[in-house]
Design goal:
The protein is an alpha/beta fold. It has 3 domains: 3-128, no CATH class; 143-158 and 214-340, no CATH class; 162-207, no CATH class. The chain is built from 10 helices and 11 strands. The protein has helices spanning 69-80, 131-137, 168-179, 201-207, 240-255, 261-270, 275-295, 303-315, 329-332, 342-364; strands spanning 3-15, 28-39, 44-57, 92-97, 103-109, 112-113, 122-123, 126-128, 153-154, 236-237, 338-339. Strands 1, 2, 3, 4, 5, 8 and 11 form a 7-stranded mixed sheet that branches. A two-stranded antiparallel sheet has the order 6-7. Strands 9-10 form a two-stranded antiparallel sheet. Helix 5 (240-255) runs antiparallel to helix 6 and helix 6 (261-270) runs antiparallel to helix 7.
Length: 372
């Protein structure tokens, strides 16, 4: 029976339907998937097909209440059903294939993504999103936050012992590298002095340190028990497993009474979780605790408590109140595989350039009618 590997690339974004009949109405969010069908016998890609996965309202900070967690949660469980739980191999789906002259074929949804270098092999779906979209969907801080200016990196640049910006000596090397277009032949020159990181992320990860710890645990918690504790004293990369483990650890410690609300906010803040994700975790934990007390017939429960729990169970798909779960996109896509396209990067450059010129114009020509 012919075998076909099916690779997937997801894309999501919000847009404003200004030019349609819905002018000045609600914005729209859309999620699509593109399938790549690769015949394992002939070793050929024979079909590329894009499909709509979900569409609904919501875009931007003003509509943050309309998050898309429920969509990604359903997508997570659907994708988990495509692999065998005991060894992680793809499940075979048998269908009649028109491309194979009506024969029955086994289709395997694959998460194995190969890049040009073997060291960059990833086992993840690729998800194309712009910067605000991917940060929000992963439950992470926006780009204007001190702790998460660079996506996927926990670093408070203001608290570094050494400046991230290149010193005059290192800046000359970088300028020469850019003028000579050195990126075509060699890697970015690493700083050789001990005064800066020379705009190098690699140097920052290897030698970066903070002036003082960003977070200090309480006496009843051993710092070594907290996933990502090294990020308290130095910058570091964020990974899916780290974020999931940190979220679950904070949840369990909060439910056990070993971590306060403030402690959870401080700890997960260093891990770059945004305030909304942290607030939802705390609120859901408190609701879970309240439901346990109601179910156990605690004498201090009031009628309002019972009503709140009953209402929450009615809107729950499982008719029960569970512990909060990490953002589902962390189970679907690696942070390194959540990418921006050339279009997104071009838009970012354009916006940054316009903002810079506007700021310069305001400082030099504050009364200019053009700026007004």
């Amino acid at each position: 029976m012919p075998a076909v590997a099916v690779f997937m690339i997801f894309w999501s974004d919000g847009f404003d339907p200004n030019n349609s009949m819905k002018r000045n109405r609600h914005t729209v969010w859309i999620l699509t998937v593109t399938f790549f069908f690769f015949d394992l016998t002939t070793k050929k890609l024979y079909l590329v097909e894009s499909c709509l996965v979900a569409m609904g309202p919501g875009k931007g900070a003003a509509e943050a209440k309309e998050d898309h967690t429920c969509v990604f949660e359903k997508l997570r469980y659907d994708l988990e059903a495509t692999t065998n739980s005991f060894d992680g191999t793809p499940v075979a789906f048998s269908f009649i294939s028109r491309a194979h002259e009506g024969r029955m074929c086994n289709f395997y949804l694959s998460k194995e993504i190969y890049f040009s270098r073997a060291s960059l092999t990833q086992y993840s779906n690729i998800h194309i999103m712009d910067n605000p979209e991917r940060r929000a969907n992963f439950g992470l801080l926006a780009g204007n936050a001190h702790q998460h200016r660079y996506f996927g990196l926990s670093c408070d640049f203001d608290q570094l012992k050494l400046s991230f910006q290149a010193c005059p000596k290192c800046n000359k090397e970088l300028t020469k590298y850019c003028i000579e277009e050195g990126w075509m032949e060699e890697e970015v020159p690493q700083p050789k002095c001990k005064r800066c990181h020379g705009f190098s992320i690699n140097h920052l990860l290897q030698h970066g340190e903070y002036k003082e710890p960003l977070y200090t645990t309480t006496k009843n918690i051993d710092t070594s028990d907290l996933p990502g504790n090294e990020l308290f004293i130095k910058p570091g990369k964020l990974t899916n497993n780290l974020l999931i483990d940190a979220y679950i650890t904070a949840r369990e410690l909060f439910l056990a009474g070993q971590m306060s609300k403030t402690a959870v906010e401080g700890y997960l803040g260093v891990l770059c979780f945004n305030p909304k994700t942290i607030k939802d975790l705390i609120d859901q934990c408190r609701l879970y605790q309240l439901s346990q007390e109601v179910d156990n017939g605690c004498v201090e429960i009031t009628a309002d408590d019972i009503f709140e729990v009953t209402r929450a169970k009615e809107v729950s798909p499982t008719n029960s109140i569970e512990k909060p779960s990490p953002p589902p996109l962390l189970y679907i896509c690696n942070l390194d595989c959540s990418i921006q396209t050339s279009m997104h990067l071009g838009m970012n450059v354009s916006i940054s350039t316009v903002s810079m010129h506007h700021s310069i114009g305001q400082s030099k020509f504050p009364d200019s009618p053009v700026l007004k």
